From TrEMBL:
Superkingdom field: Bacteria
Native organism: Cellulomonas fimi
Gene3D superfamilies: Aldolase class I
Subunit (UniProt): Homodimer.
Family per similarity comment: Belongs to the type-I 3-dehydroquinase family.
NCBIfam families to which the protein is assigned, alphabetical: aroD (TIGR01093)
Role according to the record: Involved in the third step of the chorismate pathway, which leads to the biosynthesis of aromatic amino acids. Catalyzes the cis-dehydration of 3-dehydroquinate (DHQ) and introduces the first double bond of the aromatic ring to yield 3-dehydroshikimate.
Protein name: 3-dehydroquinate dehydratase
EC assignment: 4.2.1.10
Residues annotated as binding 3-dehydroquinate: 43-45, 79, 207, 226, 230
GO biological process, one term: chorismate biosynthetic process
Pathway recorded for this protein: Metabolic intermediate biosynthesis; chorismate biosynthesis; chorismate from D-erythrose 4-phosphate and phosphoenolpyruvate: step 3/7
GO molecular function: 3-dehydroquinate dehydratase activity
């Protein structure tokens, strides 16, 4: 899948840098750091934005970020408290924010939590506005069984997602193996790119070598982390380059 000049493929894994500042000044500084660090894509975590309750302010800030990023695609995300985010919203409020980001925000991609009641409507709305959808699911407590993870990714694809993403918390290295196995299994079947990760220190290997198992991108920091276990952009880039030089290739 291609977003502007950026192709999402595990054969050329990409680095996504999150923006988590609460206001315009902080976001401006984070964008500068992300661009200086060489981010391939940038994610704006709208749930951290102080003015997130003002739809006009959200749309205007999204446009400002997209303008500043230029050719670097912007992924706009309203992460709910239920999935580790910083805001509690009703279904209607969630859909209103997604609508503003898609219709007036100039984002290239929008995150849609696939278990949101408004998810199907949000996906249709995004596509109607030419915006690609990263369907997502996050478990900050545990790692579901392999079959469950595979089914979650498959369901996202059936719902019309352009990218399917899961992030889970491991309690042992066996949990990390479970996430990587599920990624490999679904990669062999999927018609859309996958982004998967095991969080925290235990899951670090999944962030730095996920492309070997079928994940097309990792989230890395140029400032504050948006989830446990994210590493600085330079370290993620170095790991990708090392695997490329040594001939480490993707599955399939």
């Amino acid at each position: 899948m291609t977003v502007g000049d950026v192709t999402l493929s595990c054969r050329d894994p990409r680095i996504i840098v999150p923006l988590t500042a609460a206001d315009a000044a902080g976001l401006d500084a984070e964008v500068a750091a992300a661009l200086d660090g060489g981010a391939d894509l940038v994610e704006w975590r709208v749930d951290h934005f102080t003015s997130r309750g003002d739809v006009d302010a959200v749309a205007a800030q999204c446009r400002a970020l997209a303008d500043r990023l230029g050719a670097v695609p912007l992924l706009a995300t309203v992460r709910t408290a239920a999935e580790g985010g910083a805001t509690v919203v009703t279904d209607d409020e969630y859909l209103t924010l997604v609508r503003a980001l898609c219709e007036r925000g100039a984002a290239r991609l929008v995150d849609v939590e696939y278990r949101q009641r408004a998810a199907a409507t949000a996906i249709d709305l995004a596509h109607a506005n030419g915006v690609l959808v990263v369907a997502s699911n996050h478990d900050f407590e545990a790692t579901p069984a392999e079959d469950d993870l595979v089914e979650r990714l498959a369901t996202m694809e059936r719902m019309g997602a352009d990218v399917a993403k899961v992030a889970v918390m491991p309690r042992s290295m066996l949990d990390v193996h479970t996430l990587l196995r599920a990624t490999t299994v679904q990669f062999a079947r999927a018609r859309v790119p996958l982004i998967t990760m095991s969080m925290g220190r235990l899951g670090l290997i999944s962030r730095l070598s996920g492309q070997l198992f079928g994940s097309c991108a990792t989230f890395a920091t140029a400032g504050a982390a948006s989830a446990p276990g994210q590493v600085p952009v330079a370290d993620a880039r170095a790991a990708f380059d090392l695997l490329r030089r040594l001939g480490g290739g993707p599955v399939g």
